[in-house]
Amino acid sequence: MLKDVMIIADNLKKLYKLGKENTVHALNDVSFKIKDNSTVAIIGPSGSGKSTMLNILGGLDRDYTGQILVDEKDIKKYNSDYYRRHVVGTIFQQFYLIPTLTVAENILLPITMGRQFDAQFSKKRLDNLLERLGLENRRNHKPNELSGGQAQRVAIARALIAQPKIVLADEPTGNLDSKTASDIVKLMYDLNKEEGTTLIIVTHNPEMFSDVDQKIFLRDGEIVKD
Predict the structure, then answer these.
(1) Residues 134-160, buried b or exposed e (16+ Cβ, 10 A)?
(2) Residues paired with 74 in a beta bridge
């Protein structure tokens, strides 16, 4: 394998059975390579297979055929908890912040549950992300006290807290106004360079992520343009 390749997907197939006789090919012989430290957009309309691809890359769905290598290792051979805490971080469109926790507690949740970092590192990492994302004065606020843009920044910080190699973003600007969305896109690009991650964005809007290094277009479970 080339040393600068982070992800190799080879002949991925994912089937859903709808009733006894109806089978849907969510992914059909999908293959691609993604370089380390690059920015990638997986683009397609609703039903194209984007969400299925995101779930597989995120380690949430292992019921598929074909193979995905991440950092030269089949993702099915990773411990699932380790993979989702150390290898990938996911930014969801709906934020999924816990309403009873503060901003700081929401960000720290992935490494609090795993207890994989000591208290000194966790504090330093949290402080750095809060400063970089402009959330210092929101540290002790609850999610219902945040704007949409601030909530998305919290979600980004939570995805980055464990220093993952890959960051997956699911329609990260879908619930934001155009100005806030533009700011979030720029922030994600900047953080990708600073953190040295591989950033994979799932979107239906190719214009919003026009400056990525690679675009993978999906339609009806197949790559139509790469």
Answers:
(1) ebeebeeebbeebeebbbbbbbbbbbb
(2) 69
CA distance 79 to 85: 10
| pLDDT for the residue numbered 1 | 45
Report which of 116, 226, 214 is spatially closest to residue 164, judged by C-alpha positions. 116
Q: Where are the domains of the chain?
A: 5-98+158-225
One DSSP character per residue, 9-34 reads: EEEEEEEEEETTTEEEEEEEEEEEEE
- pLDDT at 195 (0 to 100): 92
Q: For residue 110, which of 157, 145, 153 has the smallest C-alpha distance?
A: 157
Widest pairwise Cα distance in the chain: 57
State in words which class domain 5-98+158-225 has. alpha beta
CA distances to 68, 123, 194, 209 from 215, in Å? 18, 36, 21, 9
pLDDT of the residue at 112:
80
pLDDT along the chain (226 residues), means of 10: 81 86 88 95 92 93 94 93 89 90 94 74 93 95 95 94 93 85 89 93 83 93 84
Question: Strand order in 73-74's β-sheet?
Answer: 22-35, 5-18, 65-70, 73-74
Tell me the C-alpha to C-alpha distance, in Å, between residue 158 and each of 14, 32, 161. Answer: 29, 28, 5
Q: What is the pLDDT of residue 20?
A: 73
Give the residue among 163, 197, 218, 190 at the shortest CA–CA distance from 41. 218
Q: What is the pTM of this model?
A: 0.90
